[in-house]
Each structure stands twice: as C-alpha cells, then as structure tokens.
Write a structure and sequence with these properties.
It contains eleven helices and six strands. By secondary structure, it is mainly α. The protein has three domains: 1-63, no CATH class; 71-260, Lysozyme; 266-321.
Length: 322
C-alpha cells in the first residue's frame, strides 16, 4: 500500500509540475500510464498486476524565472542591479511560480475582485500597484490572521475603527470590500505624506508607520531597499513585486488559462436599509434569496440580526442572477 501511495503521489507531482513549463509544447507526451490497474493486496501488489510506468519527455525542464532588469513599484525604481535585492526578488518569484495552485487562485480571484478595487484606488490617487498588496495580505479572501486582522486588507480592530469602519458583533466592515479599500487608501495616503515614498508606505502597512520610522532613524537611511528589517517586512515589498510580475505576465511564468477559467462577480443589486432587521433569514426570503446567498454577498453581516437604533444607512447586496 505504501508503494502504491508513493507512485500515485509521484504521478500527481509530475502532472502538477507541468503547469510551470515555460514552453507549452513541453507539456505534451509526458506521462503514460498502463491500461491495467494496479490491484493492491494487504501483502502488497498482486503478482499479475502491471506496474504503472512513467515516461518523461527528455526536453522537460524546471526553468528558473527571469528577473526583469527594470522593475518599478508605483513608479519608483527597484535597484535590481544590487545582488542582495536581486536574490530577494528571485526568491519570491520562485516561490510564487512553483506554488502553482496558489498563484492560479490569485489569477482567478483577481479577475473577480480587481475591478472593484482598481477604481477605488484611482479615485483616491493611490497607485494601481497597491492592488497587489491586497493579494499578498489575504489572497483576495476574507481571511483572519492569528493576531485578529481580518478582511482583504487585514485591518486590526483598532486600526479599522480609526479609519471609520464599524466593528462589532453584528457588523464588521473590514469584510465590506469597498469600505475596507477606502480605509486602506486613507492609510496609504497618510503614510505617503509621512515618508514621501510609496515603497515605504507599503512597508509601513506591514510593520506600522511608527515602527518603520524608528528603523529608518536607527539605521540612518531613507530607502526601503537599504533597511535591515525583520523577515516578514524584509520580504514584504518583494512579495508584492513578484505577484505583480506574475499576474501582469502570466504566460511568461508558465501560467496558461482561458477566460472561462477565471472567477467573475455575480450580478446583484444594492438596497438601502436604515432600520433594524430582526431576522436575516426572513429578510433574505423576502428579497427572493437564501440566507447563504445573502451572507456570501454581505460577509460584513456577522450575526442573524442587524440592530440599528441610530438609523444608519447600510448598503446590502442582493443577488439578481447566478
């Protein structure tokens, strides 16, 4: 049984590795499996069963990603010619290029969520490159970090409230993408005014403005690329750069897909609610949708009710088409 599992895992590994081929032609004629299934017994393989055979195209290769000689983040030059900088970018390209399942999910989700994020960034004069910050923060999912940061933009509760988001047991606007993106824009504009650098603004998103300012003063430098930082923040901007490179040029890094493979946003309408909703299940039914559909489109609704004693106006999305 162990031998059977090992062979199956090897086949899966070989098939998965195909995705990363730079040349699509290399993906053909790689694996041939015998027609006869392997019959496993408790004592091992049966004597009459043919073993699976794997034939590997001699031209198949694992290729190293090519680091562009000219890279920018938000229009600011990246010193790729410096060996330490080159190695950091190369590492992040390798990690994302060969973690194919995750990167494919980034590509698929970007098609669904970037059209919502991009116009909000533009409206707030935030460079478009910051959409890739949301990718490395959350993978474009409403995830929860071990420290309690939530949503696409990974706000902590105190920070979220400081930028005008409502956070309580019934409503958590960190999960409302449009509002959370607005809050992220406010943070980034404030950080840019402080550091006069979009690259440093991005780094501060990870370690905080005060912490980054302290490191700059301690080391007497004014560039992210000259700072010695903790591992997480030290990789942070390079991770953004790598994701930007791959999502901007997927074929260059071996990712091929058709438009129908990508995720798309469902069609919905917005309705305004300025009073309490005592039962969201009944509310969903009254709108012709299920409770699940209501919650999937409005993850900021955190309970089965929506108390609203102050008559605040909430925009609730209602599915209109599958």
């Amino acid at each position: 049984m162990i031998r059977l599992i090992s062979k199956i895992l090897l086949v899966i590994f070989m098939v998965g590795s195909l995705i990363s081929c730079e040349n699509k032609g290399q993906q053909a004629k790689v694996i041939e499996v015998s027609n006869q299934l392997i019959k496993a017994k408790e004592s091992g393989f049966s004597k009459g069963a043919e073993k699976k055979t794997i034939t590997i195209n001699k031209d198949y290769q694992l290729v190293a990603p090519k680091v562009s000689k000219v890279l920018t983040f938000c229009g600011e030059a990246v010193p790729v010619d410096q060996p330490f900088i080159y190695e950091k970018i190369d590492r992040e390209l390798l990690v994302n290029m060969y973690w194919q399942s995750q990167t494919f999910l980034f590509i698929k989700r970007a098609n669904k969520w970037f059209p919502i994020i991009e116009p909000i960034l533009k409206k707030n004069n935030i460079p478009d490159d910051f959409k890739y910050l949301a990718v490395i923060e959350s993978g474009l999912m409403n995830v929860v970090s071990p420290s309690g940061a939530k949503g696409f933009w990974q706000f902590m509760p105190k920070t979220a409230k400081g930028y005008g988001l409502e956070v309580n047991g019934f409503v958590d606007e960190r999960y409302q993408l449009e509002m959370a993106t607005e809050a992220a824009c406010n943070y980034l504009n404030t950080a840019y005014k402080k550091f006069n650098s979009w690259t440093l603004a991005a780094a501060s998103y990870n370690m905080g403005k005060a912490g980054l300012e302290r490191r700059l003063k301690e080391q007497d430098v004014d560039s992210y690329y000259d700072l010695l930082l903790n591992l997480e923040t030290g990789r942070y901007v390079y991770r953004i750069l790598a994701v930007k490179e791959i999502l901007s040029n997927p074929n260059k890094f071996g990712f091929y897909y058709d438009s129908e493979d990508l995720y798309t946003s469902p069609i919905y309408k917005n309705i305004t609610v300025d009073s309490s909703i005592t039962d969201l299940v009944n509310f969903a039914k009254s709108q012709g949708v299920t409770y699940k559909e209501l919650k999937m489109l409005n993850p900021w609704l955190r309970d089965k009710t929506l108390p609203n004693d102050v008559n605040k106006s909430y925009q609730i999305k209602i599915l209109t088409s599958n």
